[in-house]
Amino acid sequence: MKLSWFGVALVWVCAIAGCRSEGGAPMPDGAAGDGVDLSAATLDGGPTMMPGAKDHILLSGTIVTPDQIIVGQVLVEGTTITCVAAGTGCAGEAGAAGATLIDTHGIISPGLIDTHNHILFDIFDDDDWTPPMVYQNHDQWTTDPRYQAMLDVKQCLSNDSQGKPAWCANVPYGTAAGSLRCEMDKFGELKGLIAGTTSIVGLPGTSAACFSSIARSIDVSQSGVGKDAVQTSAIFPPSKATADGVCANFASGTTAAFLVHCGEGTDAKSLAEFGKLGTASTTANCLYAPQTAITHGTAFGAAEFATMAQMGMKLTWSPASNVALYGATTNIPAALTAGVTVALAPDWSMGGSQNLLDELRFANAWDDAHFGNLLTSRDLVLMTTQNAAKALALGDRIGRIAVGYLADLVVFTGDESQPYDAILAATPKNVALVMVGGTVLYGDAMLASTGPAQPACELLDICGTPKFLCAATSDPANKLSQSYADIKAALEQALTDADAQTPADGWSFAPLTPLVKCPP
Question: Model pTM?
């Protein structure tokens, strides 16, 4: 099927929703936008829609809850899921009257949850820096000259309070007024969003009001989950003051999840970090608690995992980054044998994965090659949904499709008879729809009218598939009204300017990494 009624539908959608091209200009009727060839678009097997109220959406398809599979419907009212039922069991609900009806012809999943990302670094990728050798611990690779050059650019653009290079004084970005922290964070949120990730632990350090305007920045106060009870520590060991404060917060209930880097490496020093975690606080071992989720644990063995399981601690696994840096990754079979809850996350995009879908495929390949195909597709999907929510102490709000949960949903195209396999095989072109808190922000171009009407969403090409993306809000404060085109242009110019300040090092960090790298 060529243009036919798909092309007509897309022109109609853009006439209503005000789509614009990736370049940012409003699209004229029938225009395809940068790189979007509507004449090649097809509808075969894709979603179909009957327009209605945007704050009431009724989805039908194969539902991965994810602890069971249902062929049926999900009703979203406002920010919340109000019905999940087999067949047409939600159609009779009062909230379904006048709702937008989307027959996904696909797989409806909870939004994926990234429990470990250094989001302000996601403007970079392997073209900017990859580990030039195999290291033994996390203190060794930070001295690499090219990594240091990349770090200088990051610290300048984000106006970090410490570590900005001297040349940063010659560009406007290393100031409060010129800082690009908003653009950097939102670019990272967008990279996650188009891969079906609706919540991200971004470890940004100091937060800003512009964070969490696209995907949820889950470790900032405005995450929208109804509570701010997540603490993080990307530096090991945490200071005694930090450790004591976390333990006090455990006791008062103000911290429900503490995510800490620990055991990152393969040597004795890395292994000893587990013991140091116990002595980091004045009260010994108070961080060995159900609230604590270890990030990495690459050096750990059966003894450490047994203690973690006994204390109810969780684990976040980032295999692609581990292998790139250390040539090995965490002993997941030992962790699972001990009974530790394991989440999966990409870490960052230099040696790690560009997004959580890429990380799922890497984890699956590593499991097949090194763990004897221990992990099923369902196991891996659980690590990015239900298990990840548990690691954040948000298992009652996100990570599942159930009544009362936040409507963070993703629709994947693929074989509905093997939904976990389809999610595992998916790339951003297979993401047909992404909804965060009931608001549709990304998906197949023909569904663009389900997104916010104002400001206009943008059309863009993702690996040959026409998509729409809604990055901007109507609030002009705190850079919230920036479109993707605005964000991209600001970052591209800044990287070019930074390169011009450091020609002697011979390294270039422009152009900006793409939102997604398409397979060849």
Answer: 0.93
